[in-house]
Amino acid sequence: MHSIDQAREKFEDFKRNLEAYKDIDLTESDTRSKILDEILKNVLGWTENDIQREGHTHEGYYDYLISIPNFKFIVEAKKTHNDFKLPLKNKSTSIGSIRKENLEVINQIRYYLLEAGLQHGIISNGHQFIIGKFLNSDASDWTKNKCLLFHNIDDISNRFVDFYNCLSKGSIVENVGFEFLNEDEQKAQIISTSLPNKEVELIRNSFSSNITPIINEIFNEIYKYDVLDDKELIEKCFVSNEEINKNRSEIERLFGDRPRRLSEISSARNTNSIVKQIKDEIESVPITLKTIEPPKPIIIVGSKGAGKTTFINFLFKVSFDDLFLKKRPYVYLDFRKYTEEDLGRINSLIIKDSILSLYEFYPDYELHSLKVLKRIYLTEIKRKEEAGWGHYKEHNPEKYYEYLISFLEECQKDDESHFIKLSEYMIRERSLRLCLIIDNADQFNTEVQKKAFLFAQSINRKAKCAVIISLREGYYYSWRNKPPFDAFNSNVYHVTAPPYEDVLQKRIDYALENFNLEGKTFGDLQSNYRLELKNNSVKEYFLSVRQTLFGRENSKMLNFLKETTYPNIREGLEVFNNFLLSGHSNVEEYILRQRFDKLSDSSTHNLIPIWEFITAVALENKKYYNHLISKINNVFYPVEGSSSQFLKIQILYYLKSKIDKVGYLEKYIPVINISEDFSKLSYKPSIIIAEINELLKFNLIETEDSLLDKDSELDLPDNSNISISMKGNYYVKSLIPTFAYMDLIVQDTPIFDDDFYTRIRKSFPLADDTGKRSLYLRKLVVERFVEYLKYQEKKETFDNEIVSNRIVENLLNNGLENDLNKLLNKTL
Fold this sequence. Notes:
- By secondary structure, the chain is of the alpha/beta class.
- The chain has four domains: 4-186, no CATH class; 206-220 and 518-619, no CATH class; 240-361 and 433-495, Rossmann fold (3-Layer(aba) Sandwich); 647-827, no CATH class.
- The strands form five sheets. It has a seven-stranded mixed β-sheet with strand order 1-4-5-7-8-9-6. A five-stranded parallel β-sheet has the order 11-12-13-10-14, sandwiched between helices.
- Helix 8 (206-223) crosses helix 21 and helix 26 (610-619) packs parallel to helix 31.
- The two termini are 56 Å apart.
- This is AAA+ ATPase domain-containing protein.
């Protein structure tokens, strides 16, 4: 697109060339080819991709249809000597004021617009222009609409800024329409903003309120072990991983310009193998001060929530034998105990806490006793004795001990120096190798992780202790080969998240095995009858949940958990927790269904329909959906400054189609290429990038660095490559084309049309105190919302090779229509 200065120069060139046609009565066809084509393309920056010529309607053929996402308009060309009758001194006026004198041309464009389902148009004879909105969608008087007038070529030249700001491609893309109209129609309305008490939480019935604490108690047995730190618990619940490392090509790519030699990464392919390698590495260096180098630091890397902490606990509490641990006392430091205020002095805090841990967990070593302190500082004490203390030691023991105590107290004030001396003492006199474990530094930003890494390297060399540190793989690999980090030699082991279903199944089994609660729970149900159950019967409900999740048939609930949270096992457990404790989880109904199935020998085990599960996860204890706080993302909610409701899902379709064409090996696409492709469709580049960043925030796409698991706190760099993620693919294929999803997001999606908003809002059923809403009306609302999306899709997209213009049709064909048909039988 041209700048305004370039456009003005081109217009002045065009104006000079126009003299050749001054005395010729050009036909409508000539007006198009010789004048309007020049103005639209060479001056105003439109391309052939933006223009459709001579489109057919029942009323005839319009001359141009010009399209960008969310805005289209028709240009009707007239003969050059067919002058319009316009008020000479007016730059703008109402359409009604010029209608009578220009009735034929105004009626003609209105017919074309009506047939095409549009509202905006331009009438021009090559030198005069009438620009306006010739149809309204809200039954208001269209003749009162404002139109912009240009009386001749000289008028355009004199008011070129107005002309350019109104009709150039850049301006229309920026304003999503004619700037001068400042239309209200782009202002959206949202159903949820009009709902009463929309932030009020559900009121549970008395039985649900009474049974929830029991469910919570059982689930706490599942969830509180997001970190396994008890030996029995680890033995019961730890899931060994058969694929502990990434494949060769991925590892080489992660290390950028200098592919890492595979000898620098653990070659272990399973948990047992990696445990053996770590044990061998620590044991490979004899425990003696004569050894120049201590064991190399061990770096445990893995994605967020993949189980790095659990793996470390597995090493030290289950895998390593007693003899190994007896020779290697260890200190475990959890970074989560530190606050932001602590980070400025984090190194000194680590050392101080390490010393205190040694005192607390290894009291038999008596490291704080005078006897041991004298051995720790044996060399220094001998020097003092040679320098004068010896006299006091022989002739004035009390004075000697006074000096000694004062000296030892002074030595212990320097925590780092004292820690080093402790480690040397343990090696020299006890043949013990101190092992320092620094965990969960990845809960902080990259700078903190860098500090932790450099500290681990430093204390490893100074104190000759073994060091194990866990880091987020994305951060570690991004700076591993840059100074000063490339100066250090470490052994790196990659921990891959185990299969989610294995983790959840073991946790549920362990919780149920250890749960036993006497007594009964009773309360009133919504149907006004009283229910009484033994508390232990809740275990039956959990067993049924287990069967629903892990039965023979592939569980939709389990698929949701896996594909929207993996490899973050911690997040998956949180989502499962939200479902169990949500006010929309009808526990009493599930218990009664389970009892009925048991009595009837039913083998369906479909106690929890997927739509109830999705609703419970999305709403938790709220009556209505809010995309800002829900774990379910709304892909039809445009970013600020945009009304393009299909751009997010178009980007997802675009990325998915690339994988379908070239496969997973080449799935990453440069962001700059995506921006260029969608810019060709007249989407604003800034909006494209904003939508990509939001998709990344939702984890619906991933960058190559997402394999490295960096947090998406910052905007994408220009040189990033992206692909649709597993979660994004699940949304496109399985979640979006469902009634459950549409039933949620219709509550929170901006509606850019007054008529559709009124129809949807009029039918929208309010929730009662328990969150129940009329199923018949919910179905009706979703159907009307689908019609609205069809209407918006026609406005926003058009036939091209880059994006699909059949999103809504695909959603209906891929499951939504089937869901609606099933509901038809339930609501009849």
